[in-house]
């Protein structure tokens, strides 16, 4: 198929969303059978969920560049149960070492219907965990992890659910599907 290609991939835990990694490191290139596609953004090694791959450099730029403010939606399991004040701080923007984050959409959610993580998240019996839904329009390195840590609720599990109009719905870790779009 010629023209623009867009593939949605559910990145598994401990897999790099980059084409190349250290020897022995599993990457998107190892799991994606379609050549010529590049990830539009990254998820860190410990994060899971949607990565959009495309052969269209302009689309890749629109997804990645903060100027376009393309929303990215995450489900985030955190230590403890964030207070209204902690959620308000996250939503208003957090001062990090590399500057203040943009305002974000943040709300508490019930545990979402997600696949089991292998290995499972290590939880402490004496400290419950909670889930947040966070929508960002920027993507700094380990941003959500740094934000939740700054309000006293370290991230235990991070799943990207959506990038702009695309969602990970129906894909288990490692699975992918091609989206057919107008060129």
Describe the structure.
- The chain has 183 residues and is of the alpha+beta class.
- The chain folds into two domains: 6-65 and 167-179, Alpha-Beta Plaits, CATH 3.30.70; 71-163, Alpha-L RNA-binding motif (Alpha-Beta Plaits), CATH 3.30.70.
- Helices cover 16% and strands 30% of the residues.
- It has helices at residues 28-31, 57-64, 84-92, 143-150, and strands at 6-11, 38-39, 48-54, 72-79, 95-96, 99-100, 105-109, 129-136, 155-163, 166-167, 176-179.
- The strands form two sheets. Strands 1, 2, 3, 4, 7, 8, 9, 10 and 11 form a nine-stranded mixed sheet that branches. A two-stranded antiparallel sheet has the order 5-6.
- Strand 9 (155-163) and strand 10 (166-167) form a beta hairpin.
- The protein is globular, with a radius of gyration of 17 Å.
> How is the main sheet built?
9 strands, mixed
Fraction of residues in H or I helices: 10-25%
Give the name of the CATH superfamily of the largest domain. Alpha-L RNA-binding motif
What's the SSE pattern?
Answer: EHEEHEHEEEEHEEE
Counting helices, strands and paired strands, the structural category is alpha+beta
Please report the total strand number as a whole number.
11
Domain module count:
2
What is the CATH architecture term of the largest domain?
A: 2-Layer Sandwich
Q: Could you tell me the radius of gyration in angstroms?
A: 17 Å
- The residue-averaged pLDDT reads 92
User: Which stretches are poorly predicted, pLDDT < 50 over at least 5 residues?
Assistant: none
In angstroms, what separates the terminal alpha carbons? 12 Å
Tell me the CATH topology of the largest domain.
Alpha-Beta Plaits
CATH class division of the largest domain: Alpha Beta
